[in-house]
């Protein structure tokens, strides 16, 4: 079903649409062509720029007026490269799940852009949006509530083909679903079973099969293993790594378990109160953190090694995370930070390579949003 | 010994049949000791705790055998009113989900004070000031102003502190903490575990910490008991178990968790799923998932072998597992 294009959109189709550089909002078919073009490994496939999501707080019943806003995501930027896994960590309420919803276009961004292969997907609609959606899929946290209990596994996975009918001819859909079940390590004969007949780990495999059905390029995983038992977690993580190699997927892996994120990620971003505090490769973040929040977060994670009990330094933060409806001025972490100075209350620290590490080839030279960034290893025992 | 659980059996009568949630659990806790009970969901770790506390839902649950010796008395033989006097005063429990364990329509001061009114016969005024003292003790800022607040007005970490305060109110000798920090963020978890460990030291209490988090266990426990399908499969001092596990299940668990301090390769995954408690496999319950299983494991239930140095393992091949 082709929707009429809005009259406001300019029709200046860029000739070289395969370029990853930002393409102007062209005609719908040009957009679709750009979206379907391949991206080289190591090139950015998704570029997020100053993404903002404010949820309005209203008062009154008849005459609603806005009295404030929950600043769930307040200007974050990052790139996702083709074939890599970007981990996003942070405590509850830091906005990491809202980021996932924004990238999926399940929420409308208040401001900012998300470029998928050069196309700003926040401005797309109709056929082009559908083409993007097909390429960015999601695996949800709770395998118990994210599968419809009244649908069979075949219907749950097959529904994606009904929504995108050109992805598989009608007669082949059942066979494709069975193939997908096989790929995620489930018996293809289970196609007529209902979700309640499966264990938690198996259900998460069904969720992954559904995410894979349309052959997407990006899968956003929001806490995909946190509801699973330890022995089952490893099975699902290994499966996800295998699938990434097999289908050349890029993952955004959102989780609060820092050990799992380190295991699966190539790069890691640390979020605090709607902002990105620090971002870098897994070695840079875990072995050479420079932002005090990252250091506190890492030092709080218990390491499964009783011999390391005494040797590790623990940074115990005082107080709780402030409300995102009324975040602190300047640096958002300053109210709990042991390094905070007057400057932190007035100047918002930018996410950039700190001045003192610029040009250095040390692992500490990565983006960190702190005025007093300083390297400190908190993970390894002294 | 402060608490000795001997051969405890608990079953649940369901429509599909009898689920044997606890099949002969034996463990003990000394005064001042922290015992971690480790296990996945359905392993029976929480049901054991409920049986010790005497708060098992029955029906459908039923204690079908065993003894729970607390300071030498078998709790299972006591009458309900005698048990009620022990609960709270001599042993107390901290639950996982503070929000649903606290009464939403009563102030926290009211709920904390109730302990003193019921057990110590204090009047409301005294109970209230005791409540403020308790909130100070678990380091809730501005306790005096917040004593009349309701549970929803506190953050998750603060609510869990209130749960701890309630458990500590009458200075019991034994605390059972059932996944006390599972619902909390890591930075808050660190605060709460620190507080719990400090208060335990101060009051020289025994602590049973029920958890599935191998990191938390390594941080605070003296000894560990690992449960699988309603049985203890291994128990040992904390350092030994991490260095050289003597049961294939423990070993599989330790190898299946990713590490924060090093980038590992592919994770070891224990194959298969935990058993359905209605149909526990014959022999060793772990045998269908075990890489070392032999014929004997499929027919005979392994006893808890004495593996020396205070260690026990319910595996016929504990020596091979420990040394290999």
Automatic annotation (TrEMBL), chain A:
InterPro entries assigned to the protein according to its UniProt record, in alphabetical order: AAA+_ATPase, ABC_transp_ATP-bind, ABC_transporter-like_ATP-bd, ABC_transporter-like_CS, Oligopep_ABC_C, P-loop_NTPase
GO biological process: peptide transport; transmembrane transport
The keyword ATP-binding appears for this protein: yes
Protein keywords: ATP-binding, Nucleotide-binding, Transport
Segments forming a coiled coil: none
UniProt xrefs under Gene3D superfamilies: P-loop containing nucleotide triphosphate hydrolases
ABC transporter domain segment(s): 46-298
GO molecular function: ATP binding; ATP hydrolysis activity
NCBIfam families found in the cross-reference section: oligo_HPY, PRK11308.1
Homology family: Belongs to the ABC transporter superfamily.
Protein name: Dipeptide ABC transporter ATP-binding protein
The organism's taxonomic lineage, starting at the top: Bacteria, Bacillati, Actinomycetota, Actinomycetes, Kitasatosporales
TrEMBL record, chain B:
GO cellular component, one term: plasma membrane
Entry annotated with the keyword ATP-binding: yes
Topology in the lipid bilayer: Peripheral membrane protein
GO molecular function terms listed in the Swiss-Prot or TrEMBL record: ATP binding; ATP hydrolysis activity
Limits of the ABC transporter domain: 5-254
Primary location recorded for the protein, binned into one broad class: membrane
Compartments where located: Cell membrane
UniProt xrefs under CDD domains: ABC_NikE_OppD_transporters
UniProtKB keywords: ATP-binding, Cell membrane, Membrane, Nucleotide-binding, Transport
Residue stretches in coiled coil: none
PROSITE patterns the UniProt entry points to: ABC_TRANSPORTER_1, ABC_TRANSPORTER_2
GO biological process, any: peptide transport
The organism's place on the tree of life at top rank: Bacteria
ATP-binding among keywords: yes
NCBIfam families: oligo_HPY
PANTHER family found in the cross-reference section: DIPEPTIDE TRANSPORT ATP-BINDING PROTEIN DPPD, OLIGOPEPTIDE TRANSPORT ATP-BINDING PROTEIN APPD
Similarity comment: Belongs to the ABC transporter superfamily.
Name this polypeptide is given: ABC transporter ATP-binding protein
């Amino acid at each position: 079903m082709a929707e009429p294009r809005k009259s406001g959109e300019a029709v200046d189709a860029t000739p070289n649409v395969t370029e990853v550089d930002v393409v102007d909002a062209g005609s719908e078919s040009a957009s679709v062509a750009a979206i379907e073009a391949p991206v080289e490994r190591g090139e950015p496939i998704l570029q997020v720029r100053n993404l903002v999501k404010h949820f309005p707080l209203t008062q009154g019943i008849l005459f609603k007026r806005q009295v404030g806003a929950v600043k769930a995501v307040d200007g974050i930027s990052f790139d996702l490269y083709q074939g890599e896994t970007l981990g996003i960590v942070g405590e509850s309420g830091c906005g990491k799940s809202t980021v996932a919803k924004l990238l999926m276009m399940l929420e409308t961004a208040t401001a900012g852009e998300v470029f998928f292969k050069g196309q700003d997907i926040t401005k797309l609609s109709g056929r082009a949006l559908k083409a993007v959606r097909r390429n960015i899929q999601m695996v949800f946290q709770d395998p118990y509530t994210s599968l419809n209990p009244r649908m069979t596994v075949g219907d749950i996975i097959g529904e994606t083909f009904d929504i995108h009918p050109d992805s598989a001819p009608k007669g082949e859909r059942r066979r494709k679903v069975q193939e997908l079940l096989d790929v995620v390590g489930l018996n293809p004969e289970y196609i007529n079973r209902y979700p309640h007949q499966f264990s938690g780990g198996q259900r998460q495999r069904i969720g992954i099969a559904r995410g894979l059905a349309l052959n997407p390029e990006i899968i956003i995983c929001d806490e995909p293993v946190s509801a699973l038992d330890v022995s089952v977690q490893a099975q699902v993580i290994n499966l996800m790594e295998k699938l990434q190699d097999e289908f050349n997927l890029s993952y955004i892996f959102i989780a609060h378990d820092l050990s799992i994120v380190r295991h699966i990620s190539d790069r890691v971003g640390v979020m605090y109160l709607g902002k990105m505090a620090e971002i870098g490769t897994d070695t840079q973040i875990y072995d050479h953190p420079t932002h005090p929040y990252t250091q506190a977060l890492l030092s709080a994670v218990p390491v499964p090694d009783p011999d390391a009990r005494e040797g590790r330094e623990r940074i115990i933060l005082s107080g709780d995370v402030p409300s995102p409806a009324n975040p602190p001025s300047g640096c958002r972490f300053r109210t709990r930070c042991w390094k905070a100075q007057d400057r932190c209350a007035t100047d918002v620290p930018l996410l950039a390579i700190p001045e003192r590490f610029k040009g250095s080839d040390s692992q500490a030279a990565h983006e960190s949003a702190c005025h007093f960034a300083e390297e400190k290893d908190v993970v390894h025992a002294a | 010994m402060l608490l000795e659980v001997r051969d405890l059996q608990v079953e649940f009568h369901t429509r599909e049949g009898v689920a044997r949630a606890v099949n002969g659990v034996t463990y003990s806790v000394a005064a001042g000791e922290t015992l971690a009970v480790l296990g996945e969901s359905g392993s029976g770790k929480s049901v054991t705790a409920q049986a010790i506390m005497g708060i098992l839902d029955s029906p459908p649950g039923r204690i079908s055998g065993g003894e729970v010796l607390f300071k030498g008395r078998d709790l299972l033989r006591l009458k309900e009113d005698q048990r009620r006097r022990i609960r709270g005063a001599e042993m107390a429990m901290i639950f996982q989900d503070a929000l649903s364990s606290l009464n939403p329509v009563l102030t926290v001061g009211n709920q904390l004070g109730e302990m003193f009114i019921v057990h110590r016969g204090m009047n409301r005024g005294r109970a209230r000031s005791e409540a403020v003292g308790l909130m100070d003790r678990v380091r809730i800022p501005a306790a005096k102003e917040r004593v009349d607040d309701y549970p929803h007005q506190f953050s998750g970490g603060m609510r869990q502190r209130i749960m701890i305060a309630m458990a500590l109110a009458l200075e019991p000798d034994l605390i059972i903490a059932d996944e006390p920090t599972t619902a909390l963020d890591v930075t808050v978890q660190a605060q709460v575990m620190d507080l719990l460990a400090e208060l335990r030291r101060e009051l020289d209490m025994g602590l049973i910490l029920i958890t599935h988090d191998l990191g938390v266990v390594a941080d605070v426990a003296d000894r560990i008991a690992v449960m699988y399908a309603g049985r203890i499969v291994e128990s040992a001092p904390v350092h030994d178990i991490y260095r050289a596990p003597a049961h294939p299940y423990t070993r599989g668990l330790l190898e299946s968790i990713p590490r924060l301090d090093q980038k590992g390769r592919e994770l070891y995954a224990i194959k298969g799923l935990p058993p359905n408690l209605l149909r526990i496999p014959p022999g060793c319950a772990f045998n269908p998932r075990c890489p070392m299983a032999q014929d004997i494991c499929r027919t005979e239930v392994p006893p808890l072998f004495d593996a020396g140095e205070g260690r026990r393992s319910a595996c016929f091949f504990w020596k091979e597992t420990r040394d290999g």
